[in-house]
Design a protein that fits this description.
CATH class: Mainly Alpha
Distance between the termini: 51 Å
Number of domains: 1
Strand content: 5-15%
Strand order of the largest sheet: 1-2-8-5-3
CATH architecture: Orthogonal Bundle
């Protein structure tokens, strides 16, 4: 297989619509070597569904970022809370972190959170009126998950907007200095928040989290790193989930009308909406610790490996007619939340937030329409996530 001459995931056309690129790469070879950035570096990109599922569970693909860069010079300066979190670790370290994180998002705990989520959505939409224009991203998709995760972490209300903005900066693919600075702002803030909570007895959500961390054997730095992961992963992808789902429905009026007429179908439609336009385009960093084969294709040791859920979810061998939004499709095998031991533990919360947001929009404003051409909408310039920067709507 011949590697492309330039990084296909940095082309401006990719950010606007990655799926033609993914289709072309997958049809050529579902596991292929691609250039990454500048400097002659390469990675292996996995775009096939079966191959992605296999790679997600292969222990020879490590997520231990520190191990990969131990003997590779780097000028990056990420805060340890960002660079050494659960997503950048392997068992047994990962196992301890995940055991704590999973307890935070059990079905029972998410059920207990639903009344709070409903109140947040009601507050955010209280001033919305038919005939007015809103930006769904700024007015709902961003503040909803930010408010929920900050409530879980005990972040004071005056600090939430700044913390969310710094979290947003972490995904800026064009400015590594900005990313590094944002990581230190978040890491330092959460370190202070955790230390203050430990020194002040209480019974709030953060104190509950600290007790879970203590019971799980996490030390101070590990507790801060878990808090940082909850903050960043707990709202960024959910923001894109909501925005992408609303846009997909507006571009498919028959699907929008079906859910409007029967909102109880929304929970069952979430998997197809996640599959159709995944908020996670390329999964977080992995690297090969030894030579291996994925789907019959060789990957040598010592290379970064990029698994692309956004591509795998549009693989026609797994999902016939994949570019069509089909609410009757069994899309439960989508990979938007990952697969295996690193599957997103916060998936139940993300689904609850998206369901409540969609139900509110479709029932209160059933004739809502786009306030700008879909082809003109601006998308985030990052290969990791796929999401809109704005989504202008006219409420009706």
């Amino acid at each position: 297989m011949t590697a492309p001459r330039q990084d296909p995931l940095r082309d401006p056309r990719f950010f606007a619509d990655p799926y033609p690129t993914y289709d072309r790469l997958r049809e050529g070879c579902p596991v292929r070597r691609v250039p990454t950035g500048s400097g002659g570096h390469h990675a292996y990109l996995i775009t096939g569904h079966a191959e992605a599922r296999e790679a997600f569970t292969d222990p020879r693909l490590s997520k231990d970022t520190a191990r990969f860069f131990a003997d590779r010079p780097s000028n990056r300066d990420l805060h340890p809370a960002i660079s050494r979190n659960m997503l950048a670790s392997d068992p047994p370290v990962h196992t301890r972190h995940r055991r704590v994180a999973t307890r935070l998002f059990t079905t029972g705990r998410v059920r207990e959170l639903r009344p709070f989520i409903n109140r947040v959505v009601d507050d955010l939409t209280a001033t919305w009126r038919p005939g007015t224009d809103i930006d769904l991203v700024a007015d709902l998709a961003v503040p909803l998950p930010v408010t929920v995760v900050c409530e879980l972490l005990g972040v004071p209300k005056p600090d939430r907007a700044t913390l969310a903005a710094r979290s947003h900066d972490l995904f800026d693919a064009t400015d590594t200095d900005r990313v590094d600075a944002a990581s230190h702002h978040i890491g330092d803030y959460l370190t202070h928040l955790v230390d203050t909570a430990r020194a002040t007895p209480g019974d709030g959500p953060l104190h509950s989290l600290l007790r879970d961390c203590d019971a799980g054997g996490l030390d101070r730095d590990e507790t801060v790193s878990l808090a940082a992961l909850l903050l960043v992963a707990g709202h960024e992808t959910t923001t894109h989930f909501i925005g992408n789902a609303v846009l997909a429905l507006l571009r498919h009026p028959e699907a929008f009308d079906r859910l409007r007429r029967d909102p109880d179908l929304i929970p069952g439609a979430l998997d197809e909406l996640l599959r159709f336009d995944s908020p996670v385009s390329v999964a977080t960093f992995r690297h090969s610790t030894e030579d291996l084969r994925v789907g019959g294709f060789d990957i040598p040791a010592g290379f970064p490996v990029l698994i692309a859920p956004g591509a795998a979810n549009r693989d026609p061998s797994a999902f016939p007619d994949p570019n069509h939004l089909d609410l009757d499709r069994d899309a439960g095998a989508h990979l938007s939340f990952g697969h295996g031991i690193h599957r997103c533990p916060g998936a139940p919360l993300a689904r609850a937030e998206a369901e409540i947001a969609l139900r509110t929009l479709l029932t209160r404003f059933p004739a809502t329409r786009l306030a700008a051409p879909a082809t003109s909408l601006p998308w985030r310039r990052t290969r990791l996530t796929r999401g809109l920067t704005t989504l202008p709507l006219t409420l009706a």
